[in-house]
Amino acid sequence: MAEATYTVEGMTCGHCATSVREEVSELDGVRQVDVDVESGRVTVTSDAPLTADAVAAAVTEAGYRLVA
């Protein structure tokens, strides 16, 4: 198992969190996605480490931006 925390810019509500959670959850091997709207933190638990590019693409698909 691997766990990584990312910062997402632009989330302001529960709907935002749900959108990000749904998109990131679709990545192969993802087991759990926890989103904290206030801090912008997204913690992803997966079978193996994910690439930042894959997570960034999922966040972009949800309409937000991954902060480097």
Automatic annotation (TrEMBL):
Residues 2-67 form the HMA domain. The keyword Metal-binding applies. GO terms for molecular function: copper ion binding. Keywords: Copper, Metal-binding. The keyword Metal-binding applies. PROSITE patterns: HMA_1, HMA_2. One of its GO terms (biological process) is copper ion transport. InterPro entries: Cu-bd, Heavy-metal-associated_CS, HMA_Cu_ion-bd, HMA_dom, HMA_dom_sf. It comes from the Bacteria. This is Copper chaperone.
